[in-house]
Batch of 2 targets.
Target 1
Amino acid sequence: MPPFSATDEIRPTSAAHGPDPRRRGLMALLLVANASLYAVYMGAGSVLLPTQVEAIDPDHKVALLGLIGGISAVFATACNPVAGALSDRSGRRNPWVLGGALASLAGLAFLGSVRTALLVGIAWCLVQATMNVYQAAVTAIVPDRIAPDRRGTASALVGLALPVGGTLGVLIASRTAGRLATGYLTLGLVAAAAAVLLTALCRDVPREPNAEPVPSVPWRRRAALFLSALGSRDFRWAFIGRALMVLGYFSVVGYQLYILDDHITLPAGLRPAAAMAVLTPVSMAAMAVSTLVGGLLSDRWNRRKVFVGVSAALAGLVMAVPVVAPTWPGMLVFSALNGLAFGCFMAVDTAVVTLVLPRAEDAARDMGVLNIANAGPQIVAPFVASAVVTAFGGYTPLFLFGGALSLLGALAIWPIRGVR
């Protein structure tokens, strides 16, 4: 049998379902649901987990955090597209939203109760797996229910989830860094409450399940079909650009607590966790502004690529600021500029992605594949970052590495032809 080609069975179709006028407040619910995701990712991943790892083994914290992050990447990247495909097949989103969030609550409660590196690794893998089930279903709601000509605005509003959720998560984590169990449990309750709110106020509209039973399909063909969206040229370049940008950003952000402790000269009396509680709102406020402005202007001008490319290039260039000025003022400037760049990128790039999906009927599955480029690098980043810091010594190479990845991500957007 010849190799399977995505174009054999997947053709571009009309856009996803238009908005249902009965669903007033859908955007607000999606904002809350996505914010809870980032509250967990940023609060637990950037503050609580590094604090927990340092308490277990302070001499090997960089390598240990990287190892835990690398192993958990397998679970995160596998669960997201699988959950998306199962959600497509079932024709419903809400059971996956609610189930993933409640399972994450249990995983976070378990994570806060363990005291060895092995159990921390196991617990973090469970959290990443279940949060990606939640994320896959929530992400699919935009192409399901938002009209294409409103994707930029919708993506901008949903994109506010990162600054809102990231700030909330880091503030919770910073205040509970000395009480890890409380911090993890609080973040889990935030995600569970958001899922309950979304599923209670935005009922599923049963969709026609698009995966009819196919008899005797070889596993290789099934795997090819599962990843067939990557056969679309535009989707593939969007995937590459997102992966590079996210990896560059989170390679630095994931180690920010250690950077503040070991690389930056902080003012007297300012501890790294407290510094995080200052830097994060600065970055997230800038991100909120650029998210809204970028999304709205990209709709008004019907231009997406220039916003994505310029913002990714800016993100790469500002990585040089902490190298030139490893000081507290330097970190404040870096956080503000990096927030501006990353916010605009994520808002407009999400609109680009929804516009290059090969088939609306497979939206959740294909967004799940795309989310490998979003969630996977976030989890792999500690592993990659630890390797860079260990191999080259110190955090200056890490900033340069992250900047190079962002610049490559800027270049990856230009080959996309289906979006202006």
Target 2
Amino acid sequence: MSALGTPPAATRKDGLPKLLGVLGVANAVMYMLYLGVGGLLVQTQIAEIDPENKVANVAMVAGVSAVFATVFNPIGGTLSDRTRSRWGRRNPWIIGGALAALATMLLMSQVSTIPMILLGWSLAQAMMNLYQAALTAIVPDRVPEERRGTASAVISVATSVGVMVGVQLAAFFVADVSLGYLVFGSAVVLGALLVVSLTHDPRPGEYEVTRRPRTSLATSVADFVSALAHRDFLWVFVGRALMVLGYFMVLLFMLFLFQDYIGLSKEEAPQAVATTTIVSTLSAMVAAIVCGPLSDRLDRRKMFVTAAGLVTAVSMLLPLLWPSMTSMIVYSIVHGAAFGAYGAVDIAIVTLVLPSKGDAARDMGILNVANAGPQMIAPFVAGAIVSAFGGYGALWAVAIVISLAGAVAVLPIRSVR
């Protein structure tokens, strides 16, 4: 088979360490923008414009923008799979998505109303998901199956670094949000340039091309979601969606949790978010470094994901039962380690249950809907829970139940041990 089935052809040209290093940087800058901009800059800007309705406005912006992420990720993956150019299949969408994202950051730096923030961040999510769809397809394209756990660990660590650095940078730029937007957008372009200049995206002739007949719209839509008819693929989708939902129900409101649940001032809360993010990220990195390669060595994936999901749920009991800065730090350590282990192995499982090698980016894009979809509904669910019960205690309780469901969802998978 060609590059559709055996990625080492591309890996030999790049060298696996080099490829994973570049992927690490490209994923890190992506999550720097996602969490730095979406987690702090956008929320700060919204709170300054309309402090009385900040929770509702943040929920609206996060939810609507996640719709764009949900739609554009699988679309971007499909377009990437079908691209045949002298620059490769993935490169045009990686660099194009990054440049378009920078343009949306420029727009964000100039807006001063809630509707314009909504428009700008929605467009940013759309363009970043074109970038992400092509980037995530590189692992099934070019990394051998027996090294997927290691690749998954690298990406998980890179994600953690991106979150940590992104939140720290965002906290630094809270006083100058406009400049912060441009810094984050420029970082993504730099990551894209590293990918396209330092790694080899196979060109036509280096991989097997499947000619596709013209089809009706209904047939195209059916083909698009056909991957969900595969049992193992569906269970991975469900498990990831539940884990991400439980995670983002809390994460999207961390700034307000510190202000309104823990009781910190408006000046103290952003630094508290940054501090707990560092603690969580370091724990996640250690867990990912250990669990990813270990899952390769043991050839076991499900037990790592299930255990990580259970510990994630248990960690949320700490702030629920003991709301304080100390409990938030302990929670961040335990939760970070659990989610780091989950991320280090989940990506490996994803790449091993793809129904079609030739549609890797499309199917990875569909699975990324399990990332974006929960982010779309999480702010609405969380906002409704906080409003209905008059506080954040119920939010922790619901997130625990959802995380437990996500932990056991991978158990029915048959094709991965």
